[in-house]
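Open question from group meeting: does this chain pack into something compact, or does most of it stay loose? Before anyone orders reagents, we agreed to write out a predicted structure and look at it together. Recording both the input and the output here so the notebook holds the full record.
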Amino acid sequence: MNVKDRFFALKLKWTDFKIGARNFPTGLVSKIKRLNTDEIRGGWRRFLSGAVPAFARAVRGFSTDLNDWTGKTPAGKLRIVLFFIPLFLIFAIAGAFFSFCANDAFVSFRYVANAVDGFGFTYNVPPFEPVSGFTSYLWLIVLRALWAVGLQPPFSADVATGLFSMAQVAICFLFVRRMNVQPRIRRKGLYLFLIVCLILITNRTFLAFMTSGTEAALYNFLVLWWTFEATADKKRTPLFLPVIAVLLAACRADGIVFVPATALFLLYFLFSGRGRIQCVVGFGALYGAVLYYEMLKSVYGAYVLNGFKANFYAPFPDLGREYVISFVLEYALYFWIAVFVLWAGFKFCLQRHDGKFVQLFLLIATFTAYVCFYLFAAGADSLEYRPFGFFIPLCAVAGVKMISENICGHVWSVFAWACLYLFFALPLPWTHFLMTDGLETRRETAFLYRPVARKAGYVPFAERFDKAQKKLIYQGAALRHREHKVLTREQLKTFPTREDGAHLFKRADNRLFAGHLVGVAGWTLPNAVVIDLSGQNNKVVAESPFKYHNRRLLGYEHNVSAGYVQCFNGGPGISIDPFSGRRNIAVSRVPLTDGKIAGCENFWKTQMNAPKPRSLRSKEL
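Structure tokens returned:
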């Protein structure tokens, strides 16, 4: 079979799969209706006759040693199912209390919707040029694939984020099962995993990003998986590592850090004799990152995402330092740093020439470079601690490993250390949550800063945390979960539903909407032309100068010329107050032609790229 025939065979299989997925619910309902009483009773008896003995064998063979948890036998598979289904339900119930959909998520939904309509991943359809205002190209692919099988945003985003969050818990299980700890503790490995789960389910950031509609859960899962592969033994193939690194690079701009880190790991594996041929193939797989950036250049005109370009102010931003400090203090990560120093002392004294220190050094260097990316380049993110979410499960697993490996000899001692960590980690985030949980309007939650030092009890560095939070939030960075939740909810009350918005006017009329928060607007008005004044989804705005020289205001800091918006038939053709709570929308009767749009875009891009005029007071004159 030649390549062309294989391509058509795969296309037919994909078509059959989509048809089967769409017809599955209807077929299932029809089969249920055709069943009679005798068939239902017979099927129930057969299920009980097989399930009850299997359940008895699973319970009888229940072991706290995770090495006995294998899926090679029916009883082992049933044991895993009986354990993880209730565990996942507990996490889902806990995450439901923090369920929200960020404004940035709706930006991704609009990109995917335009791709479904045949325009590719672009924010505004032609004659606008494609712009890379998305946060994650890989997340767009995931949402597009789910749309192909009938799941549409925002429901598909909630399903995907929930699954990737549970995948993080599963990776933590694999981490704990692989731990090389003392035999007495290894036999109680299940309890170690439950300690990790306790840390995760009490962490507000982990619970919040079980939803959000953004790529956060996917990115965190990929980082955990990458770490799992980077620290694996010689029996495991190193080919997974470069593949995950390429996915991370396509998932977010900061994921590029893992590409050179993977190259260093492959060099180490190559010289240590771990699958040398596979390591050479892995170097070739890393070329996928180059192809991804070449695609960005060819489609969107730049290697750097437009959203990153719009928010980049200058190297060494002050927000970066405060962002890292705020995250470390809120979740008491200094506790794990102290544990690491204690653990490293034991390791260097007992195993001074252990080869695994090379992997440990490379791992620390990788995550240090990742943090430096925000310290020296990106600064901060507006969506709370989205870039640092993977540190929560990673530190929990690493902390439990360090304590159980060289510090403690009993599982209850490990639990006591975990409780001591929670004593420092819980007061700040949960005090802030209790102080702001009753706020329900945009006016109450805009730039939501609440000092917690005097209300959280005795917590180390609480006043320093308040100082960092004040500086971040008043500049539009690290905005709290409550603010994002209320922001989206208030906008959804004001804007029409997507179905109603699609019938307000035709796409060919090119009605214009302009604003700084355009996620919900772009999703609920699918036929509108949207000018993003924050610059994330607009090249002209992203190239505009900043308003303030001494401070930031993420999303509101570009000094956009009034002539740019007015060029489009005198300004916005859609008028709506995004936080009025009433769906009063006014649409201009004058349509905007494609020629007018192309002319305005070309003129203002020329203005942005033109050399700046010299001052008459310049010394050169």
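Observations to bring back to the group:
Confidence is low (pLDDT under 50) at residues 615-621.
Residues 446-485 form one domain.
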